[in-house]
C-alpha cells in the first residue's frame, strides 16, 4: 500500500517579514563587515538592528557590555519623547552613533543610526541582558527606533541596499575571501 506524500507545511512569514521592509547599510563608516539592518514599517518607523553578517553576531563573540553613553554630554538613555509631535526626541543624522558594544575579546563596535530622524526609543533590555542582541537581533535584540521626518520618509532608503542587493554583496565578500 503506497502512502501519499504529506503536503509541505506552508511557510508562514515572521512578524518582521510580514510588516517590515529590510534595508541594509554595509560597511558602516568604512568598517568592513560592520553591517546594519534597518527594518522600515509601512508607517515609516525604522527599527535599527545589526545585520546577520555583523562581527558581533559571528564567530561566537561574547558581549561584555553595551553603552548608550555616546560622549560625556550625550547619552541616548536621556532621550525623553512626549506628545503628538514627539517633543524632546534627539535628532539623529545617518552617521550618528546610537550605542557602543564592548566584547570580551577587547573589540569595540559603534552602532550608527543609518537614517536621519528623531530617536523614539532605545532598547534598554539589551543593557541588562546583552545576549538577546545575538539571540534575537531582528526582534527583542533591536538597538533603537527612529522616526524619519515625513518629508524625508521616501528618501531615507537612498544609499541603503535591498535584501537582494545585500545578498549579492555577501556573495562577493565570500568569493573575495575564498579567492585570497
From TrEMBL:
Keywords: Actin-binding, Cell projection, Nucleus. One of its GO terms (cellular component) is growth cone. It is found in: Cell projection, Dendrite; Cell projection, Growth cone; Cell projection, Lamellipodium; Nucleus speckle. SUPFAM superfamilies: Single hybrid motif. InterPro entries: Abitram (IPR039169), GCV_H/Fam206 (IPR033753), Single_hybrid_motif (IPR011053). Interacts with F-actin. Interacts with G-actin. Belongs to the ABITRAM family. PANTHER family: PROTEIN ABITRAM (PTHR13651). This is Protein Abitram.
Amino acid at each position: 500500500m503506497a502512502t501519499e506524500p504529506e503536503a509541505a507545511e506552508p511557510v508562514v512569514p515572521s512578524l518582521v517579514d510580514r510588516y517590515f521592509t529590510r534595508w541594509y547599510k554595509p560597511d558602516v563608516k568604512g568598517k568592513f563587515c560592520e553591517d546594519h539592518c534597518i527594518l522600515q514599517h509601512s508607517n515609516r518607523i525604522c527599527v535599527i538592528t545589526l545585520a546577520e553578517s555583523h562581527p558581533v553576531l559571528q564567530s561566537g563573540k561574547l558581549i561584555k557590555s553595551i553603552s548608550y553613553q555616546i560622549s560625556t554630554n550625550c547619552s541616548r538613555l536621556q532621550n525623553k519623547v512626549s506628545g503628538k509631535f514627539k517633543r524632546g526626541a534627539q535628532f539623529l543624522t545617518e552617521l550618528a552613533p546610537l550605542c557602543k558594544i564592548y566584547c570580551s575579546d577587547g573589540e569595540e563596535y559603534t552602532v550608527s543610526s543609518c537614517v536621519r530622524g528623531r530617536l523614539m526609543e532605545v532598547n534598554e533590555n539589551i543593557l541588562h541582558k546583552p545576549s538577546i542582541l545575538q539571540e534575537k537581533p531582528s526582534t527583542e535584540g533591536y538597538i533603537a527606533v527612529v522616526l524619519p521626518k515625513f518629508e524625508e520618509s521616501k528618501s531615507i532608503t537612498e544609499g541603503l541596499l535591498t535584501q537582494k542587493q545585500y545578498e549579492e554583496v555577501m556573495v562577493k565578500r565570500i568569493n573575495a575571501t575564498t579567492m585570497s
